[in-house]
């Protein structure tokens, strides 16, 4: 079974996935470009402050590469953007835990400090939330495209009619023409 078989392709939530990937990608791109423009040492473990965070050349380069992945996902859109957001968000949270363990050690090649760890956790949760929006929940509504795709024969008859043909709009003086 292919994971993509369970995901509907044409749904309005694709705009949320695309916007989330694009916005977070642009933020990371700006951070990475600011770091590279300052001419930071590539493997410095002390780092310099860039936009309130500690950074070095390697972290700036990784930020630009990650921004490229997110922006590519945003350009492709749809399920690709959603899956990209979930994966990158998870990697950000994992990076936060790993770099928290490496603080104040000689192995801290990304020059992380506590604000970087907090940023990694927060950005990871934001990116992953954009990816999971409308896709992961205990109680998805019946009109959710993921629920309908996973339960094709389970829609109650009354709800199926409502989903197939939305009711006509009524105006102030009666039905719309």
Brief rundown of the structure:
With 177 residues, the chain is mainly alpha-helical.
State the main characteristics.
disordered N terminus; 4 strands; mainly alpha; 6 helices; elongated; 177 residues
Task: Describe the fold and architecture.
The structure is a single chain. The protein is built from six helices and four strands; from the N terminus they run H-E-E-H-H-H-H-H-E-E. By secondary structure, the chain is mainly alpha-helical. The strands form two sheets. A two-stranded antiparallel ribbon has the order 1-2. A two-stranded antiparallel sheet has the order 3-4. Helix 1 (14-37) packs antiparallel against helix 2 (57-76) and helix 1 (14-37) packs across helix 3. The longest helix has 25 residues, at 78-102. The model is unreliable at 1-5 (pLDDT under 50).
Task: Map the helices and strands.
Layout: H1 14-37, E1 48-50, E2 53-55, H2 57-76, H3 78-102, H4 114-132, H5 145-150, H6 157-164, E3 170-171, E4 174-175
Antiparallel strand pairs: 1-2, 3-4
């Amino acid at each position: 079974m292919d994971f993509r078989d369970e995901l509907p392709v044409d749904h309005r939530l694709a705009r949320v996935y695309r916007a989330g990937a694009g916005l977070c990608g642009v933020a990371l791109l700006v951070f990475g470009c600011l770091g590279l423009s300052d001419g930071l040492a590539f493997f410095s473990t002390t780092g310099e402050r860039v936009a309130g965070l500690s950074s070095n050349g390697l972290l700036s380069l990784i930020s630009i590469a990650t921004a490229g992945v997110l922006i590519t996902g945003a350009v492709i859109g749809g399920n690709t953007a959603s899956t990209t957001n979930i994966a990158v968000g998870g990697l950000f949270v994992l990076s936060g835990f790993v770099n928290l363990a490496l603080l104040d050690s000689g192995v801290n090649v990304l020059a992380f400090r506590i604000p970087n760890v907090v940023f990694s956790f927060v950005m990871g949760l934001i990116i992953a939330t954009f990816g999971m929006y409308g896709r992961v929940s205990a109680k998805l509504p019946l009109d959710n495209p993921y629920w309908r795709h996973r339960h094709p024969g389970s829609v109650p008859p009354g709800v199926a009619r409502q989903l197939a043909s939305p009711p006509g709009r009524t105006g102030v003086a009666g039905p719309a023409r």
